[in-house]
TrEMBL record:
Pfam families: SnoaL_2. Residues 1-19 form the signal peptide. This is SnoaL-like domain-containing protein. SUPFAM superfamilies: NTF2-like. It comes from Flavobacterium profundi. The keyword Signal applies. InterPro entries: NTF2-like_dom_sf, SnoaL-like. Keywords: Signal.
Length: 172
């Protein structure tokens, strides 16, 4: 009986430790992914994707009246790669960053609260400005990680703040 109790306790402790280790690994993977995201390094981001990754940003759909839903490694990669296509040298803003404020992981989900900072292309605002347009908006990213790969990436951005910041910087 004592031996059975000891084995049961060891099994419970090892199971709990494995869960913690897996969560720690998922969080490290998520932070490395976000570092690549903040560098606008989509080639590196792609290495984190599961083949059947799902990406969406329901808040962007509401803000821009178009779907921001993509499935599959290549489709997600191409979406990100073309966001600023032909708007900046090498299709990359001169300044882009995610300032990570809080991260927590529960099981396969890592939730990242951050501020997305980015210079926007002047071409988006036509003749209205020659100035640099900078936005810094609250962002939440939820990543689902299974077997060391991201299977789901959901973004939620505060696009109300995004449009307010643009309006304050663009000449009327």
């Amino acid at each position: 009986m004592k031996k059975t109790l000891t084995l049961t306790l060891l099994l419970i402790i090892s199971t709990l430790s494995f869960g913690q280790t897996n969560e720690n690994q998922n969080e490290k993977l998520a932070l490395a992914y976000m570092q690549a995201y903040g560098k606008w390094d989509f080639d590196t981001m792609k290495t984190f994707y599961a083949d059947a990754i799902h990406f969406e940003d329901p808040t962007a759909k509401a803000a821009f009246q178009q779907d921001f839903v993509f499935d599959g490694k290549e489709n997600v990669y191409q979406f990100f790669k073309t966001v600023f296509k032909d708007k900046f040298k090498n299709d990359k803003p001169p300044y882009v960053n995610f300032v990570i404020e809080k991260v927590f992981t529960s099981g396969n989900h890592t939730i990242i609260n951050s501020t997305f900072e980015c210079v926007l292309p002047n071409a988006w605002f036509q003749e209205k400005t020659n100035e640099t347009i900078l936005v810094a908006i609250p962002f939440v990213t939820i990543l689902t990680i299974e077997k060391g790969k991201i299977t789901q990436h959901i973004d939620y951005g505060n696009y109300t703040k995004y449009f307010e910041q643009i309006k304050a910087q663009v000449k009327k």
